[in-house]
User: What shape does this take?
Amino acid sequence: MLIDGLLIGGLIIVVGIGFSLCFGVMHIVDFAVGEWVMLGAYTGFILVRYFGHDPMIYLPLVFLIFCALGWAIYPLIYRAVSGKRHNPVLMGLVFTFGLSILAKGGALSVWGYHIQSITTWLSGKSLALGPLTIPALRFSGFLFGILITLLLMLFLYKTRLGITIRATAQDREMANLLGTDVRKVGALVYSLYAGVTGMSGILIGALFSIHAAMGVKYCTLAFFVVVLAGMGYVPGVIIAGLILGLLQSFVGVYIGGRYNLVALFMVMYGVLLITPKGILRRGI
Amino acid sequence: MPLKNGHTQPHTSASSWRWALLGLALLIAFLLPWPLSPLWIRIATEVIMWAGLAQSWNIIGGYTGYLSFGHGAFFGVGAYMTGIVMLHLGWPFALGILISGIAAALMAVIIGYPTLRLRGAYFAIATWAFGEMIRQIATILEITGGAFGMQLPAYLNLPFFYYLFLLVTGLTYLTTYLLLERSPFGYKLLAIREHEEAAEMVGVDTVIIKIKAFALSAFFPGVLGGIYAYWVTYIHPDSVLGAQLTDFMVVMAFLGGIGSLWGPFLGAVVVQLVNRVLWLVWGEGTFYLVIIGAAICAVVLFIPSGIIGLLQSRIFLPGTAWKEIRKKVKW
Amino acid sequence: MLLQSHDLTKSFGGLVAVNQLSLKVEKGTILGIIGPNGSGKTTFFNLITGMLPSDSGKVIFNGQEITKLRPHRIARLGVGRTFQIPAPFSKMTVLENVMVSAFLHTSSMKTAKKKAEEVLKKVDLDEKADFQVLNVTLEDRKRLELARALAIEPILLLLDEVMSGLTPVEVKSAINLIKQMHRQGLTIIVVEHVMDVILSLCDRVAVLDYRRKIAEDTPQKIVNHPEVIRAYLGERYRARG
Ligand SMILES: Nc1ncnc2c1ncn2[C@@H]1O[C@H](COP(=O)(O)OP(=O)(O)OP(=O)(O)O)[C@@H](O)[C@H]1O
Ligand SMILES: [Mg+2]
Assistant: This one.
């Protein structure tokens, strides 16, 4: 159980990092995060259905598709939250909220309420690790999470562009004064975020199930890790993802699975009240 | 930018026109149940309920600028409260809805004190987490019937509920008008929305004022929730605490125009009617979500001040429209 | 003494913005505060008005300690301030902006409106009373700042660079306005970069540099103070003259 929680945490971290960067750079809270996951999962599902092969090989393709989608949508988001607006925070919230309703409604209209699943060659196999047996798929999901996280971290910490992005996320006004083109950085971040989130969608779809209303669950989890991490603070997301895993396992084992969500929301609400900048107090 | 109608508009003939219009609308609202079939009375009742809910959200979200994304919780608490009072205590309905309103307002005071210190997106996420938490709690508790919900005694009297909703929603608008459009309280709320520090510097006790506004904006959903519970007789966490409650309050207020007296009303009428007409045409469907989602995005992008802003820009007055056209098309 | 600060200190992270600042303002006088950019003038105002909590030190106003009071309480005791960057209530009219202040003393709409109109007349903004703030110029926004502060009927007025960005003619009328308010019994602290303004207005001048006070004296003595000349006036005032 404990291990299980951690394994899922790995994937949420990937989603959380992009989400957190979005908040830092554009000051928007993307209510549509769960819908990106859902759309990613469906894209994987459709690709497998029409072209066969294992869903894993479509990961890069889906990444590219969603990067392009994010890139295409960004100008609209920018327009919604640009400085000319009287209340950019509200506009951003409501706009992404509209996007999420649109995506969910679209998915429901096209695919209905059916629950789908993707099977991969790993499905059903499991790995023996000493005394533990771990479902191979979950493990690979976890590995994928770590891998992408590492790549993202490398990008954010070792490349000039990445450092610019982080600096912008930590203090947008300052970055603006120093001559960073915040709009361009935003476009980049948003498409990167859409790409990794869509890509994670495939794995999440393979691990669990796919349905049009699945978004809200991942929206919840992403909000949770980002709030704990401190919004806009990337390294915190990793720790928060691990805490998420631990919390879910712990509540599941000792209190009962049905208290899982209550615990999640209570912790999230409590953290916001007590230390709104996250447990490490490094958010913006 | 259309000039928002100020608080200090003189009583000209335009304003007496407005009163006449309002009187007419009220008269129509009163007589409405006569010509309508039961189905349409139901729909009209829903529209009126939503108009009240959207206005309640507008008090904190539109006038005060604190975006509550957990406002459905107050409606749900109201619904359950009336259910519990009637079912477990055997008290009358009238007492039930009063208790519902007070309970919701009290809850708003208690959570408002710590939560209203947060700003912007932080407040939005915190209220969202709170709302979801309440829903999860309702699915677990025994007194609420858990995930199965609660069956109230049935009272099948459509006009009764229609007029009751009309009364409470009417009170919501009257309160908004008197307290927010025509009194110091409303000015202080706007000041907080526009610049909270500056408001403090001129002596506005922002903490108290915000809590009052939050409690006010929770009271009416509490009452409306109580009436709703008795009206539909069967309530469960998804029906009275579901995310769609908050969603629709925000969407309606926003489409109509936030921070204005009549915006939420227009939003509620448009959204709920479209919703129901689509439902009548296509049956139980999800396509209305697509339309609503697209409409929200379009409003944010093109008319951020909502339908009311569009109306106030007078583009619809024939004379203005003609002038606009003359300006654009040169020949 | 109307206002006294004792060893007032505030730092942001590692940066000390105000360092052990002690100042006194006599009732009915005008104190000028000068100092280069970032020397902590605005932060000092924020500490007095309670907008920021201080790290240590005390503020005493009218014989009462106000260090830990919430901002609106301090405003009610009679401390009015203007913001360096005007912070109007944008989606309200000019008149409504000032009415918010007037509600501190009345809850009648009529009285508040009359009071606000009076104050607007005083700062020469009455003609634009019904304008949306979004549609008025920077100069008018500065006047509005002043009007809003005056409408709470303060005893002490904190003016944070109300003249910057104004033309010489506008500066002159602003100086007259401040003098007139002073004659009516108001105690004022003026933060300004323009030395002429300080010289023509103030009874005493305090000079901040590197977050601490390096001198406090009458304007005549300040301009001849060796340390002040070296630290601050040197570059600015001499360069002009
Ligand atoms: N809220 C804040 N958070 C972090 N640093 C701040 C904050 N407010 C002020 N500072 C810093 O404190 C220092 C003093 O700033 P302050 O605004 O008080 O200076 P000032 O004397 O008013 O300057 P100016 O003449 O430019 O108005 C500056 O270095 C500024 O960057
Ligand atoms: Mg300053």
